[in-house]
User: Fold this.
Amino acid sequence: MTTPEPHAGNVWPIWEVFVRSSRGLSHVHAGSLHAPDAAMALRNARDLYTRRNEGVSIWVVPADAIASSDPDSKGSFFESPQGKDYRHATYYTKSEGVKHL
Amino acid sequence: MSTPQTATQTNDAHDGGHGDISVGLSGAGASGDGAASATRITPGNALRPEDIALAVSRGTAKPSADVAELALRLGDDALILAQRLGHWISRAPELEEDIALGNIALDQLGHARSFLSYAGGLDGRSEDDLAYFRREPEFRSVQIFEQPNGDFAHTIARQFVVSYYQFELYRRLAQSTDATLAGIAAKAVKEVDYHRDHSAQWVLRLALGTDESRQRMIHAFKTVWPYVDELFRDDELTGRLSETAAAPQPSSLRADFDRLTGEILAEAELQVPNVQPAPGGGRRGLHSEHLGYILAEMQVLAREYPGASW
Assistant:
């Protein structure tokens, strides 16, 4: 086999796990795991990432469904906003007489 | 002692000198910003074996002789199952399943510790005395719990049967007139509910998976099912306990067990195996050939080095 399939044979696919620690907060990435399907991925996530009362809700997402930014294009992606302080509210002086700003 | 009281007893229990969990109520993250970590750690409040041991030692919880015998039976069931399931650690088909079975084993060990701590309240024996220093004929577990792990399908078949049995039992026991039994059962039933789900998911996947997995699942149920009958046998003790509403008659659990397991088996396109029941006798200390080996492995350290700790 020269070009192995990512999920070939008996290897379960990888799922990314997001856990919400309490109501009102957002789900936060907690880690990843293997599972044969979404239902089992949720259960494995429960066993792996909420053993110590960490969560009230879990999302699982197939890892290959996630598109991620390219680490090599860090410059063009994330460094361009640097120095553009006019994108921040604090750049501007408050007009006279404006309350509660 | 009833369940609502236990929240306030949690801190008292630290006096007892029992193995404390490493994270206290004020442990890392408990009072911190929940948004800071996806893995915030709080132990939460629930009835713990240490709470029961403390209540027993202070004399605030004392079982009757009949209740103590029942607690011994149920504690032994859970203890032997925990020992069996613990064997899967590092041996399951995948790391994640390894942890799932380990989790279930630890839940069962927790139930065993609670029941045995309470049972020991009759004559002052500790959970360790009961777990490590009784001989095979003194164990009161039903024989299905000591049946070998076999392949993964066998373990799932055994787990499927016992979790549906334990769920029906604990659900009723949570209404017991004995407050400690009711408290232990009320906590355990939530955990066993998850065990039901775990095993049902696997029964469906194995039975409806490949030809190989289906054959193994069918064979596993055929091997395990003779031991089902013993779970639901009444005797003099259960008769007396049901008269005082301390515990249900095992036979009264059977209809719900048959209905709920039947639904999953039907969905999995499996038949209830048509097999003769095994003679049983675990409640009277009569065990299959497997229990002695389990006890040898489980007890050897405590017997070789009494009082050992690490």
About this structure: Chain A has one domain: 12-88. Residues 38-49 of chain A form the longest helix (12 residues). Confidence is low (pLDDT under 50) at residues 1-7 of chain A. The interface with chain B takes residues 12, 18-19, 21-22, 25-26, 28-30, 33-36, 39-40, 43-44, 46-49, 51-55 of chain A (CB under 8 Å).
